[in-house]
Fold this protein.
Amino acid sequence: MDYVSQIEEAAEYLKSQLSGPPKIGIISGTGISLPEFRLDEQETIPFKEIPGFLSPTVSSHSGEFIKGTLDGHAIAWFKGRHHYYEGLSMRQVAFPARVFAALGGDLLIVINAAGGVNPDFQEGDLALITDHINFMQDNPLIGENDERLGPRFPDMSEVYDLSARDLLGGASRELSIECKEGVYLALPGPSLETRAEYDMIRRMGADLVGMSTVPEVIAARHNGLRVVGISIVTNVVRPGEPLQKTTIEEVIETADRASQKLGPLLRRFVGKL
Ligand code: HPA
């Protein structure tokens, strides 16, 4: 089955489970349980029940589709993300974003855990992604372009939607939940960065570094979706300071703790859409 037929099959299945097209989508990853962010009329469908969906292999990713409403908006939440380092193709990683577009989606919110290379960042900070650097040395659009998905050479001048970013900034001020801002650089992983690599990433103009998000975001923009990106800063690397060991357990622990302020922020943001 070709890629577009797989996307359509998954979307048809989800449409049969949904009462209407979800305009807002969420893709979230590592340790981001968002306990404060319960949807109304929430229902869960394990990824493995959705045709064409892969179950994420990293144990912290539960891999489920959550549908529900918030402030009258239908929401499709893909909880548990696929990563390039799992050995998947960029196209496979981008599959949930494609399915969300096929469901008639409008705004995709992508949430990740990231390292901070901006010395003003603190562990546990939230940061709005203003732009990205694709350093994965791959791209989900490589290969024959299917015009049903989007154009051969999609514009990337405003990947992270400015008006949605303004609304999120407003929500952050209203709730006094600080949200920093920065450029996210994506590497394939799964090894964490060496000192020399963190220093290089900072010099290249990034504030955040991670192993995800960019594949889905490129595909989402190709599909014409609006995108908002939020990072939870789980570890900070500052110039001149010794590099601390980073473990996945600490990343998940910090992401989980910080996601407690992300839940209310997201709620307020969705209320403004
Ligand atoms: N590097 C890459 N990915 C990450 C990091 C990091 O320091 N922290 C959380 N995800």
